[in-house]
Write a structure and sequence with these properties.
6-stranded mixed sheet, 5-stranded mixed sheet, Purple Acid Phosphatase, chain A, domain 2, globular, alpha/beta, binds manganese (II) ion, single chain
């Protein structure tokens, strides 16, 4: 199974009045091209720049997502979220019938696709984490919800397949912060809520793909950050951007 992973498209973002649509369109088109030979596309969150995108931003989201040529998971990011119990920016996308199957991931969950396990940890706010849903019981806090997900993924009988080296056919994708990661330029940013610890993630017998941080990074042995498609600031103009391909 070939999986294409990207995140932090921040549709609608302007920097000092400059609209990144030309750069972003070029990058998104390169990703869409890769989905022609993929089995699954995962967006790691922050599809939109704000919790209340404009009609033009929704129009753009529909146009690009409908071009994706394989089933997709769309995780909620902190920028897609609204406070309290207000609906988030991804909620209206649930009403759209895309060409391909799509799953909007607003709560931590485990999904099985063709015998591979996907642990999906979108951004969580405490108020929503406490609400029971059809698939979750409601948790004391957003941290409790994502800790529960990690605990479930540590149970080996979760996975149906291992390769010759004992690596599980599983993947963890998250928009949460990772404590212990060198955030570089974003180091001083305010904590956004629940977090994973890098020391836990590197012990997992499968790869972990982390969104939210805009700078692409590889942390051995198994933690990867595709970064954003957008420059973080004008110093990054012309810097190479990435997406991640996983063969599982
Ligand atoms: Mn984010």
């Amino acid at each position: 199974m070939r999986i294409i992973i990207s995140g932090c498209w921040h549709l609608g973002r302007k920097l000092a009045g400059y609209d990144w649509s030309v750069e972003r369109t070029r990058a998104v088109e390169a990703i869409i091209e890769r989905t022609h030979t993929a089995d699954l596309f995962i967006h790691l969150g922050d599809l939109f720049d704000t919790g209340r995108p404009s009609p033009a931003d929704y129009n753009l989201a529909f146009e690009v997502l409908d071009e994706i040529d394989c089933p997709m998971f769309l995780l909620k990011g902190n920028h897609d979220e609204n406070p309290g119990l207000e609906v988030d920016a991804l909620e209206p996308l649930k009403k759209i019938r895309f060409r391909q199957q799509s799953k909007i991931v607003q709560f931590p969950c485990v999904m099985a696709v063709d015998g591979r396990m996907f642990s999906l940890a979108p951004y969580q706010n405490d108020t929503k984490a406490r609400q029971p849903t059809s698939t979750t019981p409601g948790f004391a806090s957003s941290q409790a919800a994502v800790d529960d997900l990690l605990r479930r993924m540590k149970e080996k009988d979760m996975y149906s397949r291992f390769d010759d080296e004992g690596r599980a056919a599983a993947l963890l994708c998250t928009h949460l912060e990772v404590a212990g990661l060198d955030y570089g330029v974003e180091e001083s940013s305010r904590r956004i809520g629940a977090a994973y610890h890098l020391e836990d993630l590197v012990k997992l017998p499968f790869d972990v793909i982390v969104g939210h941080l805009h700078k692409a990074k590889m942390i051995r042995p198994n933690v990867y950050l595709p970064g954003s498609l957008l420059p973080f600031d004008f110093s990054e103009v012309g810097v190479q951007k990435y997406c991640i391909t996983v063969e599982l």
